[in-house]
Amino acid sequence: MKSALVCGAGGFIGNHLIGRLKENGFWVRGVDIVEHEFCETKADDFVIGDLRDPVVCEQLMDRQFDEVYQLAADMGGAGYVFVGDNDADIMHNSAMVNLNMAYAAAKAQCGKIFYSSSACIYPLRNQLKPDAPDCREDTAYPADPDSEYGWEKLFSERMYMSFMRNKGLSVRIARFHNIFGEEGAWTGGREKSPAAICRKVAETPDGGEIEIWGDGEQTRSFLHVQECIDGMLRLMASDHCEPVNIGSDEMVTINQLAEMAMDIAGKKLTIKHIDGPLGVRGRNSENTLIEQKIGWRPSRPLRDGLEKTYSWILEQVEKNGTGA
């Protein structure tokens, strides 16, 4: 039986990944500083541990795992990443985790390690136009990420690649583009825009008003978590070692995302645009390279995933007594 270690197993993507690995017949160990907030883990072994501690990381590697997935990071939506107040924690916490895990995985001679990077590594200059962002993998340099979160992700990409060159670590790196779905943060400040918008729509009575940061014309693409995992597993099974995008190329404005959520909910709401952290003006996943290298690209429309996400968030809103 193959074995896998999932770091960040108490988080959104990690929890979904464990479920898929179990379906595929893996023995799975999960590790996180907290348990999952919304459901019980399906991991065979779940360790509460702080990956900033190198002793914890080395103790986890008590077997030669076939696959290691390093998803753990200090992160959140625009209200956490782009306000500037959390930069030191973001860089310190995530860098410590990655330094420790790369060293422990190389020392234990694990089969392969997956590192979840981010579209935030792309240069700000390439994302100034909402209708024409350029997020091709080969545009990452000269480097100019839009945030300290992006700088740490780019550093860690280079660190993992150096461990591959010098320590024999077999590395796979994906630059995630706005992964969303059920059983993720939907309130509290760390939620991303699809969850935040779904929550606002669910909480607001028909005919009411919701708030959107900025003019709402900033563009993004959003990938449902199950398609993200499809891409991750295909990448892990491949021989491709350079960073690739994993994201949707169905680009929408934030206003369009809000209108889609309203339509799913069957509500007519007005949008009030307010000041708030925005990130880049335009971002969209460019999927030519991943399709060429591993024969994969997303196949399902944004609305399919948003319908599932809205339904789940509506349940949470009703449970908490904040629904319209």
Could you name the CATH class of the largest domain? Alpha Beta
Superfamily (CATH H level) name of the largest domain: NAD(P)-binding Rossmann-like Domain
Largest sheet: 7 strands, parallel
What does the overall shape look like?
A: globular
CATH architecture of the largest domain: 3-Layer(aba) Sandwich
Which residue ranges are poorly predicted, with pLDDT under 50 across at least 5 consecutive positions? none
Distance between the termini: 49 Å
Helix content: 25-40%
Can you walk me through this structure?
Helix 6 crosses helix 8, helix 6 (193-203) crosses helix 10 (302-319) and helix 8 (254-265) packs across helix 10. The strands form four sheets. This protein has a seven-stranded parallel sheet, sandwiched between helices. A two-stranded parallel ribbon has the order 7-10. The mean pLDDT is 95. It has helices spanning 12-23, 54-60, 78-81, 87-108, 148-167, 193-203, 225-237, 254-265, 288-294, 302-319, and strands at residues 3-7, 27-32, 45-48, 67-70, 112-118, 171-176, 179-180, 209-213, 219-220, 223-224, 244-246, 252-253, 270-274. Helices cover 39% and strands 16% of the residues. It has two domains: 3-179 and 222-246, Rossmann fold, CATH 3.40.50; 182-221 and 250-284 and 300-319, UDP-galactose 4-epimerase, domain 1. Helix 1 links the parallel strand 1 (3-7) and strand 2. It has 324 residues and is an alpha/beta fold.
